[in-house]
């Protein structure tokens, strides 16, 4: 293969790539089954992991505090309930974010210009209006 042949194949390859890019322009390739059964299974695993992790962390903390304070069953019982409550709270938060994402679509990030604003910035309530008068 000499230099002319390599230039010719390179130019035809470039032309074919350009033609393929123009054909795909405006069409975003989408992964098959992005919101299918695998996604539902992944969400179920996430919710289960949230609940189990809260219980496990509560149990471990209770056991450690029982050993430290020498109060054998008391701290473990208390922290099992606290860990269960934390796990249920995490499941609730996860379910609410999944429901919001299902209604609104996936989050794309913060709006332009709101990255550095503190919480509540731009919102006025009746107490700030009363002080301005």
Describe what you observe in this structure.
It is elongated and about 85 Å long. The longest helix has 33 residues, at 37-69. The protein has a domain at 41-102. Helix 2 runs antiparallel to helix 3 (72-104). The chain is mainly alpha-helical and 133 residues long. It is built from 4 helices and no strands. The model has no long low-confidence stretch (mean pLDDT 78). It starts with a helix and ends with a helix.
Can you lay out the helices and strands and say which pair or pack?
Layout: H1 3-24, H2 37-69, H3 72-104, H4 126-132
Oligomer: single chain
Compute the separation of the termini in Å: 85 Å
User: How much helicity do the residues have?
Assistant: over 70%
Sheet of most strands: none
Mean pLDDT: 78
Number of helices: 4
Q: Which class best fits the helix and strand makeup?
A: mainly alpha
Low-confidence stretches: none
**Count of β-strands:** 0
Q: What share of residues are in beta strands?
A: under 5%
The shape, in one word, is elongated
Rg over CA atoms: 28 Å
The SSE string, one letter per element, is HHHH
Task: From the structure above, extract its key features.
0% strand, 133 residues, mainly alpha, single chain, elongated
Quick rundown:
71% of the residues lie in helices and 0% in strands. It is an all-alpha fold and 133 residues long.
